[in-house]
Structures are given as C-alpha cells and as structure tokens.
Write a structure and sequence with these properties.
6-stranded mixed β-sheet, OB fold (Dihydrolipoamide Acetyltransferase, E2P), Rossmann fold, 5-stranded antiparallel β-sheet, binds adenosine-5'-triphosphate, single chain
Amino acid sequence: MAEVVLREVRKSFDTVEVIRGVSLTVRDGEFVVFVGPSGCGKSTLLRLIAGLETITSGEVAIDGRRCNDLPPSERGIAMVFQSYALYPHMSVYDNMAFSLKLAHVRKDEIRERVERAADILQGRALLERKPKALSGGQRQRVAIGRAIVREPKVFLFDEPLSNLDAALRVQMRIEIAKLHRDLDTTIVYVTHDQVEAMTMASRIVVLNAGLVEQIGAPLELYHRPVNRFVAGFIGSPKMNFLPGTLIAATRAAKGSAVTVGVRPEHVLPPGAAPSGELGRIRGEVALVENLGESALIYLRVPGADGLTLCRIEGASMVVDGERMELGISPTALHVFDEAGVAFPRTVDALPGAARRAS
Ligand SMILES: Nc1ncnc2c1ncn2[C@@H]1O[C@H](COP(=O)(O)OP(=O)(O)OP(=O)(O)O)[C@@H](O)[C@H]1O
Ligand SMILES: [Mg+2]
C-alpha cells in the first residue's frame, strides 16, 4: 500500500511533448483510472510511474520516496499489460514464481505466495498447465497472479481486459474490483472502457493531449463535468450538444451564444415532456435502434451538431422520417460557454444520485 504523487510531470519524445505537466495524487489504497482518447498519454503516464520511461521534468514519488531515478524493480510496483506476455515454455506455476526466483526468495515462501495468489484468482487447478492450454481469461488471470505474488505497493494496469470477449471482461472486472477490496492496495488502471472506469474507479482522471482535464469520482464527472471535453467523453452514449442562447446567468451577458448539453438518457419521451416552450427539441427521426431494454432514437434537429440521440426505456414504435417533439428536463441541462467551460451547476439542480456522490 502506498501513495503515488506526480508533480508537474512532463515527458518528451525527441521534440514532441506528450505529457505536458501532470500533477496528481493517488491516495493510499485508492483505485484510480486513467481515461482519454487514443494517444492522449495514458500508457506513457503509467510507464513513467513504473519507471519504464524516464521523465523529462517534474517528480514521481511512491510511498513518500522520490523515485525519478529508481529502476522499476526498486519502485515497489507491479505492472499488468494488455498482452499477457507469459513465458510459453513454463508452467503457470513457474510463470508466477519467476520474478521471486530471480529475487532469491526462499522456495517454500515462493510456493506459499504462488498458491495464495492462485487461490485469490481461483486458479489453483491451472498451476501445472502451460499457457497454450489456457483460455484468454485464464492467461490474463495468470498475468495478474504474477503481479500479486510480488506483493507490490502499487499495481499498474494498462488495459488488461481489452483482449477479452465481453462476457469475460465483465467477470474479470468483478474479479479485479474484488482483488482491490481484498488486498486493499493502491491501483492505477488505464482503460478505454467507460463501464470499467465508472464501476471500478474511486476516482477517474480524464486526460486529453497530455494534460489533465478533470479528476473526480465517477458520478461527479458524470453529473458535473467542468468542460465540454469531459462532458462529451464521460457517458455512453455520448452527450448531445445543441446551440443555445443565454437568457439569464451571472457570468456571461444575456444573449450570448452557448452550447447546451443533454445526455441521451435525459431527453424525455413525448408525454413526459414539460409544457411550455422551454426544454423542447423538435426534429425528424433519422434512425431507431431497438435494443430490447431500451431504444435509441436519432433525430435530425436543425442547428445541432450531428444527430441528436434520445434513449428511452423499452421499445419505440416511431419510424424513420416521423416528426417528433421531445422534452429536456431543465435540471438535467449542462451549459457551456464559447470556450467550452461549463457554467457551474447548483446542487439543487442535480438528480439525486449526484448528491450522494458529492
Ligand atoms: N517511445 C515513443 N517514442 C515516440 N513517441 C511515443 C513513444 N511512446 C509513445 N509515444 C507517443 O506519445 C503519445 C502518447 O502515447 P500513449 O501510448 O501514452 O497513448 P495512450 O493514451 O496510451 O493511447 P492508446 O489509448 O491508443 O493506448 C502518442 O502520440 C504516441 O505516439
Ligand atoms: Mg495506451
């Protein structure tokens, strides 16, 4: 268990700066998830913590100790990658024991640690097998087991589940969350997967082009994104953005152009829409996707950026080309100025879930 502190960390490859001044603290025992578009620097930042890359400037400290110049083996970390990189000629047991043998750990202690890790991952029965006789999920479990036996202060995961099929991802997601609970350890985890980030993280770090856009608890980012980037990035399907004009606000002049954001799940079906002119969207149905438990209705709305998506519970019988009027609950609106900065939302304007999270 340990705290990880980054202070103004920068990293350049040749002349290109890919991490442009990142400061953050991963608290002891916290599960922090890095998200952001491809190429934004998630893996690089993780590798800087691990010591697999050297930082250009700034400071990395693990467990109170500056470790800019320490090799990975002395940082008390263990990293799990997307590709499991198991040794094919070794049994599962030997794969998991390998780093301990290198470190001259006593034989009986190695056995004890490997068996304990195998039990945590329910993989005792696999110990004598070779990696080629394992499924993808089992291989990933061995890769995680290899990290557990080292008893690191900090686990670093780089998209460990992205090679697995959907069902296995759900299962492994639950296992990793349980691992975090059982071992009570600090975890930094990179993922592309919204559900992984929302469900596993104590806090999410949203990165964009080498900078932190926002750090917060999952529901805080969902309900109170500080800018349009975070608003569009967190949440699936994505938030809709519509042009608007400010009628009243403290910060900007009345009449200024703003962008109004509304999540597909907060667009209300006809009938549930509030009365009056305010909070209405009129458009023409471009496409309907019935998913069973919900339906996605894509509307062509004049002036909107692309199609406007509405997600309703159950099935929808509307057809392409039909004209529809939908409502927006005023409490679910996000408003952004021309620079993309969000106008603050008052707690009272938020749905109940956000109040619990804050
Ligand atoms: N060794 C390297 N030399 C030069 N450029 C690099 C190197 N490693 C990474 N980069 C660049 O740094 C940027 C960030 O890469 P990084 O792998 O951290 O992104 P990422 O957020 O993990 O993306 P993805 O989601 O696709 O894995 C990219 O533009 C990448 O091309
Ligand atoms: Mg990456």
